[in-house]
Write a structure and sequence with these properties.
isomerase (chains A, B, C), 2 domains, alpha/beta, 7% strand, TIM Barrel, homotrimer, three-stranded parallel beta sheet, six-stranded parallel beta sheet, globular, uronate isomerase, domain 2, chain A
Chain lengths: 480, 480, 480
């Protein structure tokens, strides 16, 4: 693909009005709205940065290991155009050979820069290159080495360690994602070092509620060990989960996180649940039982949430590891997770019948199926006090995706039944770019309401602040 | 939520260009188009204002009872943010205590004014406050009492009675919705008093075709009584329905109205239908039979429509009363009706095979599942002469919803296979606001076709008039 | 409908900026982008112009037979407003009487001109009338005869024969669609006359893989005859298909074309497939077996494609011949083909597991269910190297449809995982209009990325050229 090298490269810059609307009157208004939110601190409650990054506070390895190898948004695009994952340094499960020359990996990434045109990755990466690393060259085969060296030099500076970046990025509060079996030792260390209120854990029990995970049996045993409760039977399993939730609450957790295939929340009877659990221990569980048990556990988690006040994040609808060979070679989260149509109205009904108006319960709903915004999620969030509609998620965390979200959800749910912007990234240095983009898109949406005389200027500014800061804060406040 | 009180309130005004596009050239064109439709009379063929309002012509009770308590668009938003329905005066089925101080209810509504930002309720309410009641204050806790008093004073004026508002609102024709069991006595009174051509009934048989409605047995008996035909068996039931349709036609009805869960129109054999009916009378009907019978009756209603010419309005896809506790406490239509994905292509096929090209048959299709506009409804309406695509309905009766409707339906269905704008409201004083908004959005859509040189200015103006007035009139004309 | 005659008709003209964005700054950029693509040659790899048109190179019959009768986009709109297909000259299967006066048919079409407002047919027809035929009158009852005469005169000119139009239209490469049973004799003639590289066949086996087609048995026999392989059993049937694919490759084919009801690609065992095939020969096949066999054959076609390199075009999701009576009277492709919701993530998985990363395999996916762009197709195309996402198809080949496609697919799939613009028409003279429109819409989309500072001007121009010419060429290049 010679495309990216044909034009004489202009310097890489960020336009101050990027991602704001084109119409001059609307842009003026959007600029004024954005000016009021751009410097607000970041609340990042649904991210997946590893807690070790903060606990150890080691420098990042190198530009490729930071920006390319672990970011499946980035690698999937190159793979989709024919690159082997190995050539991008994506580790093999069997420890087999992959590219280890980070400079070479970075060259391959830069040579494919044109492939990201029109994608949010391009937008975020540009922001990172310019704002975080001070790069002024457009990535290409010709500029790859220079850019690599510049970033590498920055990463060696003391100011670029994970904890220091919290300040640089204006992060007020960030949540990590932690398995139900986590001992939370890294969080204990952070707390001891005064960061306990700034870096908090999130309780993620997926690995122990999906009975067919290859690691399920080992995880259940570990759950027993870490909780000190016998998980050899269903009642102990439930008690152990409850105990872990309490430990997470004690460690500062505000939320739990649930990535199910479907949104089903139909509870089973205790007897049936216990039978399925027992069969799973024997390794004799049926696929339909796996799904039924996962749905049952979503209901159980809601029941516990109504007691302990952890905010429940639910993001269903992704068929993980669509390509077996990629999964077997490279493991999970390698860009081959593909959404499926997802039903919420009937699926969430058991949970909402039980806890939908419970003052101690809150669920935040995410989706990668945009069709449900106006049809199901906004009507549900616009009725049930326990529900808030999460930010555009994953593939939808993008300029057009965020715009469509506001256009399709707001009229039925209003603004206050949404969670405000919540990123979902393991790419730490992309966090400021993502929040900045969301503030620009929200400013653009609100500016149109103003120029169409559907909202006053003052209301729009106030709403923008609510979306950028107030709602992420209040949506994730533990319930009374 | 202090948001609505932080900014110094500007006076409440309506901008003459509200809801028109921002781009100056497009706005100029839209303004000219809108100028040609703004004063056209209103045809309101799918509303739910109670016929008693016109028959009795009593003054409205008070501002809260007019604008808040009966409007589930309004109450659901407050409920979604934690208000108890009782605190908003929403009556309890058991007659239990609810707030009876209308002034207090109105204060709660005004204090939550910010929650409506970006919703069509906000848009309609602003229009009503300014245009209908002459209010110039933004609702808030501080202004609630003044606004209440102003509206209350207006409601006491003779010009604000329901019949007088017909003239004030420019309503040429309005349909009420009447149960199949209605004696139509109020309509007879209206006819006797010269309003028979202006306020017409609509035949709505849902209560007697859904065999599992709690009131079904009582309604069936009443159907027998009012028709004078024994409904103790299926043949009599059909005959009674036919007789009532004739009575409705005689009373001026132009249409029937069908709110089914699914769009299924698969007919049963007479034998099977009669058996299910008999079992329903014994109280022994299965859920699957209930749905099958409802589908069968949709087909039967189409068959009768092809004979008597009543236009058939079909609006499926809403799971009613999603939260049992709210339903049991407060009854139907309390904001907890949630859409589900709805299939039309296969579901309507039996009906369309039988009557789709019948010159005496017309069906108008509504949906709250936007995904079917471009995929199913526009292709169907763009082929079958019997079909017209109804206006954006319910949650979609909104600026963005109406815009998306035109953008996704027009290219395949054209304009003439749509019904023009039809509101669906029980909030009488919102009718002018809703029609005005639709005319603005259509003007905006058409103006873009003009400025993108896809339509001439003259064509756009002519089309706008067709959408605002001609099509509602011709779509609901009884068939030959 | 008097609408189209009320206004004094302005001359029919094409605005040079038609279908470009309204905003002045965006339009300027779009104009510059479009200027770089407007004259690029056309690659038309998914059309349905009959090969005989090129082989025989006879003049077109008359304006109605060219523009109205065979174009179901055009006739369906008139039918939807009450015209009988017979009155438009649509032939009856039984040879029964239909209108034969082409002038009268053309009058009916012109009198209904207002019905096409807002549709792509209107846009294409205007382009054809002005650009191809030099008409300057707006079609109406009053102008029909003059327009008819002008077009008829043009059609009689030697420059208006099909082969001559290839040059006039700037068509570099066009594919016809040919049954698996085709002897390819017309293509042989074209090759002998030096057009073999410009007009190529496409292998379409639908008629022989759907076991319930009325003509299936006859087609199977013909497949045996033309291939010289006994199709009386499953192995011979597969071998015959393989042989035909080879013949198509030898004749210059680049692609196969598959119009299935569902996207299912689940393979059967050889034994089961052979059993179903044998039962089909006996006329004893079940509906579920028909679908299972079609899915199996999609998998088999992919397997053969991975060997012979034919690019596989898959466009599922249309329920054909929705109205039996129209089908029985007039046959297939009469405007009563209605889309259904279509699932891809699970349906394509078997094929993608097997061939999704195979260097010899490419599939191009089309849909008429827009909901899958962002949810399923863009994520799949953005991961699997074998997949490209085809252009907006059929009802979606329209200004708004193309715009939504770019807005919903680009952020996840990027540009390079799409096929560029591919038309799907049997209306030969509409081809330049369709490609021109797509270039305008892409210019408009790209211009917004530029004015929102998400893409540089140079990148936008380069991308536009890639979409208009490079990608159609490279996407349909036979694989190594």
């Amino acid at each position: 693909m010679p495309q990216s090298s044909t034009a004489a490269p202009a310097p890489l810059t960020l336009h101050p009005d990027r991602a704001l609307p084109t119409d001059p009157r609307q842009r003026d208004v959007a600029r004024q709205i954005y000016a009021e939110t751009r410097s607000l601190p970041i609340i990042s409650m649904h991210g997946h940065v590893e807690v070790e990054a903060f606990a150890d506070n080691l420098p990042f390895a190198d530009p490729a290991q930071l920006l390319v190898v672990p970011d499946h948004y980035v690698t999937r695009m190159l793979v989709s155009q024919g690159a082997a994952p190995e050539s991008l340094g994506v580790p093999r499960v069997d420890g087999g050979p992959v590219e280890t020359d980070s400079r070479e990996i970075f060259r391959r990434f830069c040579a494919g820069w044109h492939l990201y045109r029109g994608t949010p990755s391009r937008y975020w990466l540009e922001h990172e290159l310019v704002e975080v690393f001070g790069i002024d060259q457009v990535p290409s085969a010709a500029t790859a080495d220079t850019i690599f060296d510049t970033i590498a030099a920055r990463l060696a500076e003391p100011d670029f360690r994970p904890r220091q970046l919290l300040d640089r990025f204006g992060i007020e509060l960030i949540a990590t994602t932690d398995a139900a079996t986590s001992t939370l030792e890294h969080h204990a260390r952070l707390a001891a070092e005064g960061l306990g209120d700034r870096v908090v854990p999130t309780f993620r029990p997926d690995a122990v509620v999906y009975l067919d995970r290859p690691t399920w049996r080992a995880d259940i045993d570990e759950l027993g060990t870490v909780s000190g409760i016998d998980t050899g039977h269903y009642a102990g399993y439930l008690a152990a989960l409850r105990q872990r939730r309490e430990a997470f609450v004690a460690a500062g957790a505000l939320a739990s996180d649930h990535g199910h295939l479907s949104a089903d929340t139909t509870p089973l009877s205790d007897t049936v649940a216990a039978e399925i659990y027992a069969r799973a221990l024997e390794g004799a569980v049926e696929p339909a039982e796996v799904q039924a048990f996962a749905a049952h556990m979503l209901f159980q988690m809601a029941a516990m949430a109504a007691e302990d006040g952890l905010v429940m994040q639910i993001h269903p609808g992704v068929l993980r590891d669509h390509h077996d060979a990629v999964y077997q070679a490279h493991g999970q989260d390698k860009g081959f997770d593909i959404p499926v149509a997802t039903e919420y109205t009937r699926a969430l009904r058991p949970m909402l019948q039980a806890f939908g108006t419970h003052p101690g319960f809150r669920a935040i709903l995410f989706t990668v199926d945009e069709t449900v915004y106006s049809r199901e999620l906004a009507p549900l969030a616009g009725a049930y006090p326990s529900l808030r509609l999460g930010a555009p998620w994953w593939f939808l965390d993008s300029p057009e995706g965020m715009r469509r979200f506001r256009e399709t959800a707001t009229e039925t749910a209003g603004f206050w039944n949404t969670s405000g912007f919540v990123d979902d990234t393991r790419a730490y240095v992309s966090i400021p770019a993502r929040h900045d983009l969301s503030r620009r898109i929200d400013a653009g949406f609100l500016s149109r309401l103003v120029t169409e005389h559907r909202l006053t200027h003052d209301e729009a500014v106030e709403t923008a602040v609510v979306l950028a800061h107030t709602l992420p804060q209040t949506s994730y406040a533990r319930r009374p």
